[in-house]
Amino acid sequence: MLLIALGLILWTWPHMMKEYTPGLRARIGDKAARPLVAVVALVAIVLMVLGYRSAEGGFVYAPPVWGQHLNNLLMVFAVAMFGVGHSKSRLRRHIRHPMFTGTILWGVSHLLVRGDSASVLLFGGLIVWAVAGWIVTNMRRPWTRYEGGSLAGDLRLAVITVVLYAVIVLIHAWLGPNPLPMG
User: Fold this and answer.
1) Once rounded to an integer, what is the mean pLDDT over residues 76-98?
2) What share of the chain in percent tops pLDDT 90?
């Protein structure tokens, strides 16, 4: 559990560096800060994964039986949200924070199927990070709405979403836990 908590802290700092340590980012400069942020984020992910896979926490709650079905549906939308921010989709002009939205959907969907303390810490912690990031970003700067987007961008986003979702399901089926309802 300590590794999960450390990973969450390391994940939060580089993603909120401009808000929490603005002088440091300015001194380092964007060119040098980007690789630093990438390395720290990668280390954070490794710590969270290792911590989660080795955690021996008890159950906090029993997930609902229908949670697995809603999890799978929400995950399709979460994967789409992760793509919206980089797409030329018309949807992009309607969603200010697609990455935070995707993280929140991802976290909620996983809490629908995992009631152990490690899951509550990991997924709940990332939900808290996304909500805090959403609030801080809204306070820091006004929204400049994306003006582009096309039907072709929408279709590309849909195809990429379905393919990535299928890859995620296959990886989960291989490494566990299997996200598909069993017979």
Assistant:
1) 92
2) 57
